[in-house]
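User: Reviewer 2 asked us to show a designed sequence for the structure in our supplementary figure. I'm pasting the structure tokens here. Could you produce the per-position amino acids so we can include them in the response letter?
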């Protein structure tokens, strides 16, 4: 599943090619996805100009001059690309947006767990209201996490991956951040010290920035907006590895919250 770094890499890739462009047609495959706009909502954005491309959590927000936003979520297998409008559609192309310059924005999603929203400012606020702070901002701090975790016995990795707590830290990056901070993923969150929270928050930010810098991590489906894989998987220390990238000890794999979690029993306590 694309996590925050992968979505941010895609946003940066499409932003300069979309900003200032006018939408002339929107077409779908007719197949269901997690969420799709109504025909009336689609009609409302035809002829509008794209003014900005932002990201909130794992959502890509395409702002329009008609005071609406086109919001995309990639789900587990979604890909976004910009290509010549004459390019024949391929299997799993579920959204096609024609631009006035002859290019086309496409959302391809084989499992169809992604979503598309067209929102007013108020609807956009409500959509994002349940989300926690962005991890690369000052709002995600050791003090915030220390206070929030008091009295909670929840596994620290599950807390870190909860989008109501902090957004965008998925399985890969949570595993790597916990390794960098030396914390066992199953440790109860109320057993993490203030010093350890400082280390974990700093590690989370560092790992996410490294993921963005290296174009994201391609474990299976992820490709950037040019169809190229990321390279951060080559820098992983424990996730998906047999041996720890630091000490060489055999990496352990456990299930937490229904997800595979990787850790080094030597480096993480």
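Assistant: Here is a per-position design you can include in the supplement:
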């Amino acid at each position: 599943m694309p996590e925050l770094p992968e979505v941010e890499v895609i946003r940066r890739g499409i932003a300069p090619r979309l900003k200032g462009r006018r939408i002339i047609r929107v077409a779908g495959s007719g197949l269901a996805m997690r969420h799709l706009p109504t025909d009336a909502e689609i009609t409302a954005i035809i002829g509008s100009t794209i003014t900005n491309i932002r990201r909130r959590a794992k959502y890509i927000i395409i702002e329009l001059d008609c005071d609406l936003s086109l919001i995309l979520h990639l789900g587990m297998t979604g890909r976004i690309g910009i290509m010549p409008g004459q390019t024949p559609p391929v299997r799993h192309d579920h959204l096609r947006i024609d631009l006035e310059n002859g290019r086309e924005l496409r959302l391809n999603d084989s499992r169809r767990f992604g979503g598309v929203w067209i929102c007013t400012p108020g609807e956009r606020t409500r959509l994002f209201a349940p989300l926690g702070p962005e991890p690369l901002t000052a709002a995600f701090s050791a003090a915030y996490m220390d206070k929030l975790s008091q009295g909670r016995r929840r596994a620290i990795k599950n807390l870190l991956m909860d989008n109501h707590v902090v957004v965008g830290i998925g399985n890969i990056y949570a595993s790597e951040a916990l390794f960098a901070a030396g914390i066992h993923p199953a440790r109860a969150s109320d057993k993490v010290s203030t010093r350890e929270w400082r280390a974990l928050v700093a590690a989370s930010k560092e790992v996410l920035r490294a993921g963005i810098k290296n174009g994201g991590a391609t474990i299976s489906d992820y490709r950037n907006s040019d169809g190229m894989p990321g390279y951060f998987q080559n820098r992983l220390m424990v996730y998906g590895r047999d041996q720890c990238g630091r000490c060489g000890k055999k990496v352990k794999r456990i299930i937490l919250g229904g997800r595979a979690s990787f850790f080094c029993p030597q480096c993480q306590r």
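For the response letter, you might also mention the following. Residues 161 and 169 are 5 Å apart (CA to CA). The beta strands are 23-28, 50-56, 59-64, 69-73, 78-84, 93-99, 103-109, 115-119, 252-256, 259-263.
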